[in-house]
Specification:
The chain has about 425 residues and is of the alpha/beta class. The protein contains 14 helices and 17 strands. It folds into three domains: about 150 residues, NAD(P)-binding Rossmann-like Domain (Rossmann fold), CATH 3.40.50.720; about 160 residues, Dihydrodipicolinate Reductase, domain 2; about 80 residues, Alpha-Beta Plaits. The radius of gyration is 24 Å and the shape is elongated. It catalyses: L-homoserine + NADP(+) = L-aspartate 4-semialdehyde + NADPH + H(+).
């Protein structure tokens, strides 16, 4: 190859993923002219502390001066791997206004300010690529934006948080309780010291907001997503789910229906035969349904140094190709519709319920009456262990609107025969 051009890029952040991207660029150095049409050089790396040595990264590349990056005309691509909202938001906007292509893995930023960022993409005729924001190394953003664009998509559903999937896998496969599984996840580095964003569903909520925005061509923000975590899931829930032929997973669910779009994150019983039921440990998977493709699933490692760096690297190669061919900015904002985002009380599901009731005649009939009066039909009911004058009822309902099940449970909580509502988990289908 003659006269191979060199494209210079800057990294914002040199943490786990940033370090992985730098190493991968160096590893692919000899291949990039053939894959991308140019040499790629990481010429600067923005960090907070330039005196701290980063293994595998030359110290001379480090800088704490953002202006030296954004004002450098030779730097054509800015790769943001800092995380958080600010200053990442400001840096990306300034980079685009300076005529640079941007790549980000920042799910928090995209879920909150995706509309503002995409407006900047359109105004500045540049690329903003963000494959690594959802699913780590799993290709899902590109398929949704391009490969599946010929479909009317009706469902995007997935396991998009490795921490919670690891915890639930250990609870299911090894009989651990929640606290024990969380402790092991923390020890192995899957869970942060403060696991709230993972176990309460916030991380998954941001990712499903991004995917729903693309799939349904309407802007979905994190604030639109109902989130419910796994902290209340018990060994008993896992055991009973198995008896009924189900597996419990924390799922991000986005569905388009005639009356609007549902976007939610919560634990769900899914049939043991469903492809997502077999996704265990820290793996992620996204299941998509379209009118033409029917069902498709994407599975792989959802986090980590090189899986996430792999997704960033794919975006980098795309950005370089577009620069070489003079076609940057060809895929802008696809949110050209404004669909109704349904509040959670208007969504419908089947429900798995565990109730502790007084072990006496007429208790089941009384409970069934409350459900019937609130439009809740019972699909299956099993009476489990009896002890201390109480019995445990395990109930699966037919499909019913969320507000109706909530109304019924509120009434049941006030009845003397109902000692405790031990659990409520939605059921896929």
């Amino acid at each position: 190859m003659n006269q191979i051009p060199t494209i210079k890029a800057a990294l914002l952040g040199a943490g786990t993923v940033g370090g992985g991207v730098y190493k991968l660029v160096q590893r692919q150095k000899d291949e990039l002219p053939y894959k991308a049409g140019a040499n790629v050089e990481i010429s600067r790396i923005l960090v907070r502390n330039t005196s701290k040595h980063r293994e595998g990264i030359p110290d001379e590349l480090l800088t704490d001066d953002w202006k030296s990056i954004v004002n450098d005309p030779e730097i054509k691509i800015v790769i943001e791997l800092m995380g958080g909202i600010e200053p990442a938001r400001t840096y990306l906007l300034e980079a685009m206004r300076a005529g640079k292509q941007v790549i980000t893995a920042n799910k928090d930023l995209l879920a909150e300010y995706g509309d503002e960022l995409m407006e900047a993409v359109t105004e500045n005729h540049c690329d903003m690529l963000y494959e690594a924001s959802v699913g780590g190394g799993i290709p899902i953003i590109h398929p949704l934006k391009q490969c599946l664009e010929g479909n009317d998509l009706t469902e995007v559903m997935g396991i998009v948080n490795g921490t919670t999937n690891y915890i639930l896998s250990k609870m299911t496969g090894e009989g651990m309780d929640y606290a024990e599984a969380l402790a092991q996840a923390t020890e192995l580095g899957y869970a942060e010291a403060d696991p709230t964003a993972d176990v309460e569903g916030y991380d998954a909520g941001r990712k499903i907001a991004i995917m729903a925005s693309i799939a349904f061509h309407t802007r979905v923000k994190f604030e639109d997503v109902y989130t419910e975590g796994i902290t209340k899931i018990t060994a008993a829930d896992i055991r009973y789910a198995s008896e009924f032929g189900y597996v419990i997973k924390l799922l991000g669910v986005a569905r388009e229906q005639e009356d609007g779009v549902e976007v939610r994150v919560h634990p769900m019983l899914i049939p043991a035969t469903h492809p997502l039921a077999t996704v265990n440990d820290a793996f992620n998977a996204v299941f998509v349904h379209g009118d033409a493709v029917d069902d498709a699933m994407f599975m792989g490692r959802g986090a980590g140094e090189f899986p996430t760096a792999s997704a960033v690297m794919g975006d980098l190669i795309d950005a370089v190709r577009n620069l070489i061919q003079g076609c940057s900015g060809r895929i802008g904002c696809s949110c050209y519709k404004k669909k109704h985002i349904k509040p959670m009380e208007q969504t419908s599901s089947r429900y798995f319920l565990r109730l502790q009731v007084e072990d006496r005649s007429g208790a089941l009939a009384g409970i069934a009456s409350v459900f019937g009066n609130n439009g809740v039909s019972i699909y299956q009911v099993v009476q489990k262990a009896r002890h201390d004058g109480k019995a445990e009822l395990v109930i699966i309902t037919e499909n019913v609107e969320e507000r109706r099940i909530r109304d019924a449970l509120t009434i049941l909580q006030g009845m003397s025969m109902v000692r405790e509502i031990s659990g409520m988990i939605r059921v896929y289908g």
